[in-house]
Amino acid sequence: MTNIIPFPQLEIPETIAAGPGPGNTDARVLARYAGAGLADHMHSDVLRGMVECKEMLRAVMGTENTYTFGVAGTGWSGLDMMFAGVMPGDKVVMFVNGTFSGIDGLTVRMKAATEEELAANSLDPQAASVITIEVPHGQSVTGEIVEAALAVHKPKWAAMAHWETGSGRVNDIEGFSAACEKHGAMGLVDAVSSLGVGDFRIDDYPGVHGWASCPQKGICCLPLTYAPVSFTDRYIETLKATGTRTFCHHPILEARHWGVIDGKDVEKGTYHRTHSAYAVSAFHEALRICLQQTIAQRAADYTFHESALRAAVTAMGCEVTSNMPSLVVLNLPGDLAGREMELVQHCRAQNFGIWPTLSEPVQVRIGILNLLNEGAIRDIVQRFAVALRDLGGTVDSAAVDTALAQHYRRAMAAE
Ligand SMILES: *Cc1c(COP(=O)(O)O)cnc(C)c1O
């Protein structure tokens, strides 16, 4: 008898997720995922869990928007739903300063393209109604840039990444919101890498009418669980008037399963598509953790530990070009310049999961999602120093130790 199973069981090793995301899923979240009982998507406790998630998500996002819930999938699932409001021929101004806002731009061009424009180049349509403002890699989108573009174009929609994870840049959300309000544009924001990391309330930005995030970065849940989204009533009214050509990612239809019907909270959701009891349990626990730790405390912890990592890699001779609290984007010291990809691959081969930038110029990205303690930061610094030496670089260990000691000792003294 030959064994007809072609492969052994799949083993995936434990790694240190020290990149831009996915982050390190909290052990409590994994336990809830594995601990959920077998139950269908209309079981009363699953439906109750979804309603509780919706309520906790409003607190995490800082909003009273009724249309606040999770979209099954990852960040792009939530973004696809958020951009569902954009219809063919709609005028949109897109602010692009890296990989992810670039893909947001592609999504918007696909949705805003006319039938002819889409057929002419279906994978990269050039929609005449979409104006793309390119901001160079390594720079932030400023309020002045947004104001100048919206004053000229007066679009229906304007879209930006809150934090551009490709280049590690924080964009000016306050300026974006103000310019949208002033010029009557509805702002749409990709908050995939900022939610759960930065201390902000979306209701403080009234020019923004749609928000989308992801499960597996700042929220510390699992990929393919739920991507948080939130929409103002104006967005929903606009969408209702035009309609949109998706069933699955339809904001109004999907909200029904989370207990939002005709703009109101109801006790129990109604069927939209099958939801997973495991995913609901995991997402529920992730949101409980966010609220328990508080968004403000998490944000303070990210800022604190990012500056320790920044000081340590700077002491190694690297040049940091990012300003995001969960991610350091850097150029290697002069003698290793140009070997960024090789260094990243060397680290990844040892399950030290750092990342390169995905668009030019190639830089190294080191993230600290859910790695908010001195031990974890010291481990990353140590591994990174070893990798630099493995490639033939030199590391001044004393300078690195001093940088870390100063940072963490100063913190202890302050406590
Ligand atoms: C990670 C990321 C995405 C993509 O999210 P997925 O979860 O991979 O689908 C989109 N936008 C930004 C800003 C991101 O950081």
Describe it for me?
- The protein is α/β, with parallel strands linked by helices.
- 43% of the residues lie in helices and 14% in strands.
- The protein has 14 helices and 15 strands.
- The strands form four sheets. The chain has a seven-stranded mixed β-sheet, sandwiched between helices. A four-stranded antiparallel β-sheet has the order 12-13-15-14, covered by helices on one side. Strands 5-6 form a two-stranded antiparallel sheet.
- A hairpin with a 6-residue loop joins β12 and β13.
- The longest helix has 21 residues.
- The mean pLDDT is 96.
- Pyridoxal-5'-phosphate binds next to α3.
What is shown here, in short?
This protein is an alpha/beta fold.
Which class do the helix and strand fractions yield? Answer: alpha/beta
Give start-end ranges of low-pLDDT stretches. none
Mean pLDDT: 96
Our count of domains comes out at 2
Described by strand count, sense and barrel closure, the largest sheet is: 7 strands, mixed
Instruction: Tell me the name of the CATH class of the largest domain.
Output: Alpha Beta
Order of helices and strands: HHEHEHHEHEEEHEEEHHEEHHEEHEEHH
Arrangement of strands in the largest sheet: 1-9-8-7-4-2-3
The percentage helix is 40-55%
Strand content: 5-15%
- Tell me how many strands there are: 15
Enter the CATH topology name of the largest domain: Aspartate Aminotransferase, domain 2
Small molecules bound: pyridoxal-5'-phosphate
